[in-house]
Each structure stands twice: as C-alpha cells, then as structure tokens.
C-alpha cells in the first residue's frame, strides 16, 4: 500500500515551490495545469488532466515519489468541460457523481500502488460553512459523502508566514492538517518536500535507496 499525502494551501502559499529541492532526485511530477515550475531546474513530468493518462503514467513511472499538482483542477477542469452540456436534473446529478467517483477512484488507485511509493496530492484550500479550512472541491459528494481529507493519514497545509513559506503538520487555526504521532518534530516546518519525503520514509521504514545514495555522495 502506497502512502498518499495531501498538501493544501492558498494560491502563492508555496505548494509548487516546495518541490524546489526535488530537482535531480527520485521524484516525478504530474502537471495537471501544464504550468511552469516556480524555480530553476526540471522534474520529470507528464502534463495531463486525463485520469486514464494519469493512472497509466503512475503505472509506468520509474520514480517512487510522485507529485500531482494541482490535483484539485482534475475536478475543476472536468466540471468546466461538462456543466454546460449536463442540462438539468438527472444530468447535473450524474455530472457531480462522476466528479466524485473519478477523484475517489484515483486516490484508491494510488493506495493500491507498491508500499515504497509516496504520492502527493496538491490542492487549493477553501473554507466551509463553519469556517474550517479544507481542500477545495466542487459539489457536495466529495465534501459530505467522501470527505477527501479523511482518505489521507498525512495532510499538510502551506502557509505564508511573513516572508517564510511553511508547512503546518497538525490541526491549527481551523485547518485540517494532520500527521502521525511523532512523525514531525514541530507544528511548523520548512516547506521542503524533499525533507518531508525523507521524514515520511524514515517513519514508515520505506527509505528510497536511490536518494539515500545521492545524499551520501553529496
């Protein structure tokens, strides 16, 4: 069973920038919006928002750490393409069901991958009616029936603290952040995804020999 990790944050909070130290490491990227990365260097990537192509890419991926950025636009793009043709009544209901089914199925597929894989879902955040901060979706099926964040053991929130970009590792200020007991040393950590990947792998005993060898060489 692979480890799915959810990373949420507002636009500009540092989600994509957290990959800056993953350049040249055993990381791959599924670039849903096909947008340039906000730092120098390249990460092997597939640019698509097609669920079938994503699962195919994951099956054939040589890297054991994969980022899906921005995963939330898998839902948004599908909605924008389909809502005008959905009509009313049952057509709209079917569209929202399909939005939920496909995203839920992708997470389930990731969970079924080999246990030494870690897959990061990056999504924008939103506030619900009670003021709680959660991943941004469309429709009530994912929010009420599925609860996207409930499908992840690790949920990190990106914040901008002054000029510093940080990850929040536990629930704070109404946000849904969470991580296993003792995984991270503090509530706030640097938004360095390479460091996060190393900590997760050490915690679960699934260290990546390729990256460990590169660290020793460096």
Polypeptide structure, described:
The structure is a single chain. With 218 residues, the protein is an alpha/beta fold. The protein is built from 6 helices and 9 strands, in the order E-E-E-H-E-H-H-E-E-H-E-E-E-H-H. Strands 1, 2, 3, 4, 5, 6, 7, 8 and 9 form a 9-stranded mixed sheet that branches. The longest helix is centred in the middle third of the chain and has 22 residues. The chain is globular, with a radius of gyration of 17 Å. The mean pLDDT is 89.
Q: Kindly provide the radius of gyration, computed on alpha-carbon positions and rounded to a whole number of angstroms.
A: 17 Å
Strand portion: 15-25%
Helix-strand pattern, N to C? EEEHEHHEEHEEEHH
Largest sheet: 9 strands, mixed
Count the beta strands.
9
What structural category arises from helix and sheet content? alpha/beta
Helix percentage range: 25-40%
State the oligomer.
Answer: single chain
Q: How many separate helices?
A: 6
Task: Give the overall shape.
Answer: globular
Uncertain segments are: none
What is the CA–CA distance across the termini? 31 Å
Q: What do the pLDDT scores average to?
A: 89
Short description:
By secondary structure, this protein is an alpha/beta fold. It contains 6 helices and 9 strands, in the order βββαβααββαβββαα.
Descriptive terms for the model:
218 residues, alpha/beta, nine-stranded mixed sheet, 9 strands, 33% helix, 22% strand
């Amino acid at each position: 069973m692979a480890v799915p990790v959810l990373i949420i944050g507002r636009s500009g909070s540092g989600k994509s920038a957290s990959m800056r130290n993953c350049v040249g490491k055993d990381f791959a990227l599924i670039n849903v919006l096909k947008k340039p990365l906000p730092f120098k260097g390249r990460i092997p990537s597939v640019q698509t928002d097609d669920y079938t192509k994503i699962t195919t890419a994951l099956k054939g991926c040589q890297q054991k750490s994969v980022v899906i950025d921005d995963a939330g636009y898998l839902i948004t793009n599908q909605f924008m393409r389909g809502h005008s043709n959905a009509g009313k009544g049952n057509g709209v209901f079917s569209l929202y069901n399909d939005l939920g089914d496909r995203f839920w199925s992708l997470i389930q597929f990731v969970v079924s991958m080999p246990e030494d894989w870690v897959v990061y879902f990056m999504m924008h955040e939103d506030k619900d009616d009670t003021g709680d901060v959660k991943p941004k979706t469309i429709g009530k099926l994912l929010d009420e029936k599925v609860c996207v964040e409930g499908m992840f053991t690790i949920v990190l929130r990106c914040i901008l603290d002054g000029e510093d970009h940080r990850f929040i590792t536990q629930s704070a200020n109404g946000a849904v952040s969470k991580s296993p007991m003792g995984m991270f040393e503090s509530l706030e950590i640097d938004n360095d995804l390479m460091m996060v990947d190393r900590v997760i792998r050490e915690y679960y005993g699934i260290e990546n020999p390729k990256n460990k060898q590169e660290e020793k060489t460096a």
